[in-house]
Amino acid sequence: MYWGMGAYGRKKKLTAPKSVKVIESSFSDYTTSTWENDTLTMQYWLKHLQDIFNYPRIDFIYFSNHSSQFDIDDIKELFGNTTKVSIDDTGCNAFNQMILQKFSSLKKLSIRTSILANSKTPESTLIQNFDELHFGYILERTPMTLDELLLINSKGIRIEGLQMPKKLLNSFIKLWQKGSSSHMEYLYFFFSGAEENDEYIVMKEIQHEVISDNRRRMFKSVGLKEPYTVTGGLDIYRMDGTKATIQIENKHPFVNVKIFVWFDHCIMES
């Protein structure tokens, strides 16, 4: 790699690497191999590995420490056909914004909101129709207003470390019953500060049916790798008759709130 004038200033260019490290992992073991050859391009190595493992896809790109040193246009050109991007602390807020601009045709986006300006996700990102949009980190604060939550247009929503009064989640559910967030198939909230009356606050004045913990229903969505077993929960209905199940799990000091919307294509036979 060398330093050159890339997108938005002087950046490292993706040229022929001196060596390539390959990690092949499974649930129980992993192997590491290092291949040295400084005459082969990044494009060649990528194609070579895809051919060896018979896997042409790029599942995701993870932007983390020092990623901002590299030319975003080079990265986009080489790995641009990925469907998922994860953005952690790259060291540069402007670079984080460039990632969101350059990779605009994603199915899944995971972003640590603390690395964005004022910890705010741009509205242009919220309104995109992702299969899954994942915000935050459980040990950090992820501030979000009710209006921002209502802007989200994704099928799957995960928010960790959510900083929002639980009574606003109650308001969100009531607005969903009236027709808002119509694309949402599932939603996971991970709060800190669990309290004994969390279920009362979240479900206040919302008519619901308590489902026995012995009952298990299978839920699927394009945003989930595997079907999810919904055990028990609280069933509610939207004004058009669509059913959803809410699970509220108090795991002190955290409380998890999950919502599953039972569209026809989300129902699996048990």
- Main sheet: strands, sense, barrel: 12 strands, mixed
Number of helices: 7
Work out the helicity level.
10-25%
Number of DSSP-assigned strands: 16
Please tell me the overall pLDDT.
87
Shape: elongated
- Structural class call reads alpha/beta
Q: Report how far the terminal alpha carbons are from each other.
A: 53 Å
Low-confidence stretches: 1-7
**Computed Rg:** 22 Å
Task: Spell out the helices and strands N to C.
Answer: EEEEHEHEHEHEEHEHEHEEEEE
The percentage of residues in β strands lies in: 35-45%
Organism: Caenorhabditis brenneri
Protein name: Sdz-33 F-box domain-containing protein
Domain Sdz-33 F-box: 123-189
Question: What do you see in this structure?
Answer:
By secondary structure, this protein is α/β, with parallel strands linked by helices. The protein has a domain at 107-268. Helices cover 21% and strands 36% of the residues. It is built from 7 helices and 16 strands. The chain has helices spanning 42-52, 72-79, 93-102, 123-126, 146-151, 166-177, 198-203, and strands spanning 2-6, 9-13, 19-25, 30-36, 61-63, 84-87, 108-111, 132-135, 142-143, 156-163, 186-192, 209-219, 228-237, 243-251, 254-261, 267-268. A hairpin with a 4-residue loop joins strand 3 (19-25) and strand 4 (30-36). The model is unreliable at 1-7 (pLDDT under 50).
Compact description:
Helices cover 21% and strands 36% of the residues.
